[in-house]
Amino acid sequence: MFALRSLLLLLLPLCPGPGPGPGSEAKVTRSCAETRQVLGARGYSLNLIPPALISGEHLQICPQEYTCCSSETEQKLIRETEATFRGLVEDSGSFLVHTLAARHRKFNEFFREMLSISQHSLVQLFTHSYGRLYSQHALIFNGLFSRLRDYYEKSGEGLDDTLADFWAQLLERAFPLLHPQYSFPPDFLLCLTRLTSTTDGSLQPFGDSPRRLRLQITRALVAARAFVQGLETGKNVVSEALKVSVSEGCRQALMRLTGCPLCRGVPSLMPCRGFCLNVAQGCLSSRGLEPDWGSYLDGLLLLAEKLQGPFSFELAAESIGVRISEGLMHLQENSVKVAAKVFQECGTPHPVPARHRRAPAPWEEASRPWRASAEEERPTTAAGTNLHRLVLELRERLGRVRGFWAGLPLTVCEDTRMAADISQEAAPCWTGLGRGRYLKPVVGSSPTEQLHNPELEGDTSGPDVPTRRRRLHLRAATARMRAAALGQDLDMRDADEDASGSGGGQQYADDWKAGTAPVPPPARLPRPPRPPRRDGPGGKGGGGSARYNQGRSRSQGTSIGLQTPPILTFFPLALVVLGPR
């Protein structure tokens, strides 16, 4: 018995003691030298970082084991990891903002330049055709282009009223010039304008030109404006969405992902890739623009195809001078018939004594209507391109960004600061608790899957108010572009159309293409008679005429008589595009 006890005493020093826990192992094998080196290079005060591991009972997010972080260091790391993540998201999407901004600038420059070229072509045509007669009345034509630009740039007066006012002013100037043997008092000109605004089309002094110009220019301008506004809305929405807000659950998950390895004294141990994907998906799934992003891009491409096809902005802009010239020629060729109808309705004006008569207007000197030559079908403007090239570039660039929001978590986790490289996936990595393999499931980005995200299980807040507002803006822009692709202007919901129950805004038919039969425009309620308007420049060659001010524009009349607050106007559209989401 004594010999057995002596043998046990001899063997006791050779037996291993109880194994230390994870913390004690870290305390024995690791110091804080590496953490001090990394954080010191980032500008942290070394006085806040102990040289050796200390108890971690004071930590709020990282495991409360042995640590290199004081409470102050942990709080600074929380802010730093959040800033790093937000910076990565913003940098990842900078090319997307640049793409939309560049496309917006190029298309906007092109459309504006085409209007300027159209105006310049009309001046050349009419100066050559009518000479001094055109110069005396140039303000009428300048006013037309000014109001077209206002509509495109500022969402001004409705295009139907702009064009109707132009043709009425042109008739008031042209009719007396064709009949210089008569004196036309203001009451007679007012009656003349009433006849041009009747819906039965019995007069038609300019033939079919007003209707064809209306169809061609209105749908092209409606589409161009909706398209450029859509690009601008997309650029602004994306720029705001990339300044992602971080929830409290996301902030803690980011700290566990990239901050806690520093506190554990292993800054060189990279986070596991699956760990990063779960954190990034949880932080971004409710802050991005899916599923509205794909529909928005489809709306852009659909409208772009219309703008270079049936709603060609180039052809529409080039046709303005042609249509007006054709209308004036029709008026000249049918002046006797038009005058007979006018005199029948408005009475015969008093003749002018022969010695006071003006010479007849030199309409016979007008040359044939100008048309674009074959080589001008696709002009290169001051914008340095044409519509065909712009659409090709747009299609190619949008193809690259279609999956941006769905792939953003992968893009973020490809950064070496966020996760281990995919080639080192088999190597041990930081799991959130220590060195090992990440065995938790990697979930998708859908709301249902995010309910089971192992890294943000308690964070089920969903999209915040700014994110919902951005998605709503994107849906509204998409709805406006899709309506414009059908020839509808959602921004011009006229009172007469609301009364008819259509509720679709102004509509313009596809009847101007070569080889197709004319299609009458949608029926519209007759306009009320307009009182005389003398608010233009007036005088010789001025823009003033015996036109009407009351009800001059349906859009203006609506805004004056029924001023609706913007939020109430936007709310019904919001309900339509927001849907059940």
Short key terms for the protein model shown above:
581 residues; mainly alpha; two-stranded antiparallel ribbon; two-stranded antiparallel sheet; rod-shaped
Describe the structure.
This protein is mainly α. The chain contains 22 helices and eight strands. A two-stranded antiparallel ribbon has the order 1-2. β3 (429-430) and β4 (435-436) form a beta hairpin. α4 (71-92) packs across α11, α10 (209-242) packs antiparallel against α14 and α12 packs across α17 (404-413). The longest helix is centred in the first third of the chain and has 37 residues, at 94-130.
Q: Count the DSSP helices.
A: 22
Helix/sheet category: mainly alpha
> In order across it, which strands form the biggest sheet?
1-2
As residue ranges, the low-confidence spans are 4-29, 363-380, 494-505, 508-581
What distance separates the N and C termini? Answer: 83 Å
Please report the total strand number as a whole number.
8
Function: Cell surface proteoglycan.
Region (Disordered): 351-382, 444-468, 485-564
Main location: membrane
Biased composition (Polar residues): 548-562
Summarize the entry for a quick read.
With 581 residues, the chain is mainly α. The chain is built from 22 helices and eight strands.
Write the layout of secondary structure elements.
Blueprint: H1 2-11, H2 22-29, H3 33-41, H4 71-92, H5 94-130, H6 132-136, H7 138-154, H8 159-178, E1 182-183, H9 186-196, H10 209-242, H11 248-263, H12 273-284, H13 292-307, H14 313-333, H15 335-346, E2 350-351, H16 387-401, H17 404-413, E3 429-430, E4 435-436, H18 447-450, H19 465-485, E5 488-489, H20 495-500, E6 506-507, E7 532-533, E8 547-548, H21 554-561, H22 566-578
Antiparallel strand pairs: 1-2, 3-4, 5-6, 7-8
Helix pairs in contact: 4-11, 5-7, 5-10, 5-14, 5-16, 7-8, 7-10, 8-9, 8-10, 10-13, 10-14, 10-19, 11-12, 12-17, 13-16, 13-19, 19-22
